[in-house]
Write a structure and sequence with these properties.
Keywords: Membrane, Transmembrane, Transmembrane helix. The protein is built from 23 helices and two strands. With 279 residues, it is mainly α. It is rod-shaped, with a radius of gyration of 33 Å.
Length: 279
């Protein structure tokens, strides 16, 4: 394929075309299908990214005026000068990531600008959310695409590993977090012992209900966390006796304190006066 005139820009043949590259040059031109445009100069260090399959692009082009800017600032900042938005329209950002690697691109223009140009939804497909979180940090990532969408992209199980639930609760609040993944799953992720520290058992009981809470962590540990006096108010002693049995209940709080909580008249009905006198 004949190259356009040098007056319009500078272009060098690519290895994929079967023509040897001049050793002295520090940049090469990528071929593209577009005609009437100028050329894109690629730093010499990126030449290894080219392969025989790249020749289907023909010549990718930039205006001639960038030729002089290259001599002033060097080829590394070329992508900033011609704007990544214009480049992505010509060859598509998916193929661009193959040519120059997103890791190198983020160094050139910064992930903040990159996310505005191609959108975080597409960016996550290009490089993967696992790597994206390392590049820009989860705090900024959550602001860009929102935690609700982030959870859909990578899954909350993996998200909790990335930023830890303590930090996640600060970002979106535990009330909203429970809506996203459900408290049943949340308890599996971080454990109820840690969950109780984050949001408090009073609020936790409202979210998932004491019946389910008692199954998750056990009544013995529950009594230590919130105290039996408050526990009796939350679920009522009648229900508590069903859960753990009255013989064990006496050991936990003692009959003297139990009688104050529910009254001896009601206590006698629950366990029977004969058994009460024996105790």
């Amino acid at each position: 394929m004949a190259l356009p005139a040098r007056a319009q820009g500078i272009a060098l043949p690519v290895c994929a075309d079967g023509i040897a590259l001049p050793v002295s040059t520090d940049r090469i031109a990528l071929p593209t299908r577009a005609e009437g445009l100028h050329y894109l100069f690629v730093p010499k260090r990126l030449r290894y990214l080219l392969s025989t399959r790249d020749c289907v692009l023909r010549y990718l082009i930039v205006p001639k005026k960038f030729r002089y800017l290259l001599e002033l600032i060097g080829p590394h900042y070329l992508l900033v000068m011609i704007r990544f938005c214009y480049l992505s329209v010509l060859i598509g950002p998916h193929y661009l990531s193959v040519l120059i690697e997103l890791h190198y691109l983020s160094v050139l223009i910064g992930l903040r600008y990159l996310s505005v140009l191609i959108g975080l939804r597409y960016l996550s497909v290009l490089i993967g959310l696992r790597y994206l979180s390392v590049l820009i940090g989860l705090r900024y990532l959550s602001v860009l695409i929102g935690l609700r969408y982030l959870s859909v992209l990578i899954g909350l199980r993996y998200l909790s590993v990335l930023i830890a639930l303590r930090y996640l609760s600060v970002l979106i609040g535990l009330r909203y977090l429970s809506v996203l993944i459900g408290l049943r799953y949340l308890s599996v992720l971080i454990g109820l012992r840690y969950l109780s520290v984050l949001i408090g058992l009073r609020y936790l009981s409202v979210l998932i209900g004491l019946r389910y809470l008692s199954v998750l962590i056990g009544l013995r540990y529950l009594s230590v966390l919130i105290g039996l006096r408050y526990l009796s108010v939350l679920i009522a002693l009648r229900y508590l006796s069903v859960l753990i049995g009255f013989r064990y209940l006496f050991v936990l709080i003692g009959l003297r304190f139990l009688s104050v909580l529910i009254g001896l008249r009601y206590l006698s009905v629950l366990i029977g006066l004969r058994y009460l006198f024996a105790l």
